[in-house]
Amino acid sequence: MVILTATSGEILLKPGIYDAVITEVVAKERDGRPFLLWTFEVRHAGDKTTRVRRPTSLHFGPRSMARAIAEAALGRKVRPGESIDTNDLVGCRVQVTVGRAIRPDGQEVNRIEQVLPAEDEELLF
């Protein structure tokens, strides 16, 4: 008999800063509250990549995470009154600070704590 044990399929990254690309931004809703789900393809271990997701609110004020991600992707500050289409951010290179979080079910997962502008303009995935 063979016993199979289910895994999450997620590759746990060591906490640190990684090169990444924004691959998707999707509007979702949970418990009647809208939010954005950002997906990043994170480069690790040389040429390997894994996907890490980060939810944010729809707030776009100066201290919001959505605005920090947009500014990192654009490589500049967003001007007051400026509108940003999240589709224009897909494909943008950034750096992400990855940490760990524990889900309510006890599973340890990657967590994007900060998004920074890409340092290396020659970065190709």
Chain-wise SSE layout:
Layout: E1 16-30, E2 33-44, E3 48-56, H1 65-74, E4 93-102, E5 108-117
Antiparallel strand pairs: 1-2, 1-4, 2-3, 4-5
Give an account of the 3D structure.
With 125 residues, the protein is mainly β. It has one domain: OB fold (Dihydrolipoamide Acetyltransferase, E2P). The protein is 8% helix and 45% strand. The chain has 1 helix and 5 strands. Strands 3-2-1-4-5 form a 5-stranded antiparallel β-sheet. The longest helix has 10 residues, at 65-74. The chain is globular. The N and C termini lie far apart (42 Å). The relative contact order is 0.23.
**N-to-C CA distance:** 42 Å
Structural shape: globular
With strands numbered from the N-terminus, the spatial order across the biggest sheet is 3-2-1-4-5
Describe the main β-sheet briefly: 5 strands, antiparallel
What is the helix/strand order? EEEHEE
- How many strands? 5
Q: Count the helices. How many?
A: 1
Radius of gyration: 16 Å
Q: Which structural class do you get from the secondary structure elements?
A: mainly beta
CATH class category: Mainly Beta
Q: Report the helical percentage.
A: under 10%
Which residues form runs of ≥5 with pLDDT under 50?
A: none
CATH topology: OB fold (Dihydrolipoamide Acetyltransferase, E2P)
